Amino acid sequence: MNVNAMRSIDKWAGVPLCFLASLLSRIYNVFANKKIPVTTNTLFIELSEMGSAVIVDPAMRKLRRETNANLFFAIFKDNARSLEILNTVPQENIFKMNASNLVSLLFGVFSFMAWCRKKKVTCVIDLELFSRFTALLSFVSGARSRIGFASFHDEGLYRGSIINFPVRYNAHVHVAVNFVSLVNRAMNKFENPYATIALEKGDLDLARADVHPAQIAKVRGKIKDMYQPWRHEKVILFNVNASDMLPQRRWQQENFATVARQLLDSFKDIIIVGTGAPAERKYVQKVIDMAGHERFVNSAGVFAFNELVPLYSISSFMLTNDSGPAHFASVTALKVFVLFGPETPALYAPLGGNAEPFYLKLPCSPCVSAANHRKTTCLTRPCITTIQPSWVGGRLCEWFQEDTGRIATR
User: Fold this and answer.
1) Which of 56, 106, 150, 279 is the most buried (most CB within 10 A)?
2) Do 3-186 and 213-408 share a fold?
3) What's the confidence (pLDDT) of residue 407?
4) Distance separating alpha carbons of residues 215 and 223, to the nearest angstrom
5) CB-hemisphere CA count at 13 Å for 21?
6) DSSP string spanning 134-198?
7) Which CATH superfamily does the domain covering 3-186 fall into?
8) DSSP of 22-54
9) Is the model's pLDDT at 410 over the cut of 60?
């Protein structure tokens, strides 16, 4: 199901359904004791964003550490692999919803209801930014404690009063901070809708992924298969695509090609590996053809998802659009350069401390937010298209030279 169809359903069906569910919720709340959330079996819901499954990880670990809660997660089936990166949530505690079409989505809702009752979910934390669908999922889960974002005095973003432990979403702080606020509300660290509790030391610390030597050896073997002359020259990664959720995030293919040529002409001891899913192979190949260099190879569809972290762990740095791989790489020590356009690094920079953004800070940026359900009709996209390859390539060359110097002096 395409993104615009999902937005339309969320609006035209979601609003009246949320109104009806709110009436039922208010009647139920008259008889229910909801003073303190019960976090024994806590379900997190984040359906559509793979990167958010990494961003929320520090908050989930905080809840488990401080309350010994059993963690559960609901996510779209196509995005579920993102939870395998850190394995914070056991596989048997992950509900994977099929959203390929409306029928499968409806069947998924009924399966979700049964699954929640089987798992005895006591608390739901809705991570989505004002999705009516996930608010309704929270309600039909049967959990007595439902925590999520609310707008309060802000106009619009209606989704009723289904959330009975609301937290005001703050559009001026990183989304990871907002996620921690939801967890703090679940632990009853503040009682009003405003997150008045300061973050504690370590609240945003991201765990590092465990990488087995056998996985690294397998990845090295695949690189050798793609580029036979490889003698363990340094590997640089280019992630040139971005999901269809927000295609405006894509930097031009010719710009990636220009930067690739600059790097390959400047450094003889590197190869560039273009990454991507199997469906992105033609898109990646077009960039490689534009660059016209034998040391730029196409790995789209070559590496399995569970091989990405080992690939990141042996690479020097990655240049990427603002997309999931930027967050996947943050669980390793890899330096990541992220091209931001319609989004902002102030809210969505990868955690971990190794990310560096390219961001023009135009007056129109960011043009997507919770207030417009992350939708923009801008076609010219100057926020991303006018980021100059000379600027990007110059910074990458500078950093690589400095990093090579640091390694040489160790």
Assistant:
1) 56
2) yes
3) 58
4) 13
5) 24
6) HHHHHHHTT-SEEEEEE-TTSS----TT--SEEEE--TTS-HHHHHHHHHHHHTTS--SSS--SP
7) Glycogen Phosphorylase B; (3.40.50.2000)
8) HHHHHHHHHHS--SS---SEEEEE--S-HHHHH
9) no
Q: How many CB atoms lie within 10 A of CB 265?
A: 10
CA distance 104 to 120: 24
CA distances from residue 397 to 224, 259, 317, 402 in whole angstroms, order as listed = 24, 10, 11, 9
> What count of residues does the chain have?
410
State the residue for tokens 């997507």: 368
For residue 280, give the DSSP letter: G
Which residues pair with residue 235 across a beta bridge? 271
**Secondary structure element (H or E) that encloses residue 76, with its range:** strand 70-76
- Count of helices and strands (H, E) across the chain: 15, 12
pLDDT digits (tens, 9 = 90+) for 159-177: 888 999 999 999 999 999 9
Q: What is the pLDDT of residues 11-27, one digit of tens each?
A: 888 889 999 998 888 88
CATH for 213-408 is 3.40.50.2000
Supply the mean pLDDT for the chain.
92
Which amino acid belongs to residue 320? T
Per-residue model confidence (pLDDT) at position 34: 65
Extents of the domains making up the chain: 3-186, 213-408
Place of tokens 């894509």: 250
Q: Which of 150, 93, 153 is nearest to 126 (CA)?
A: 150
- Give the Cα separation of 123 and 146 in Å (integer): 6
Query: Angle at the Cα of 391 (from 386 to 394), degrees rounded to 5?
Result: 155
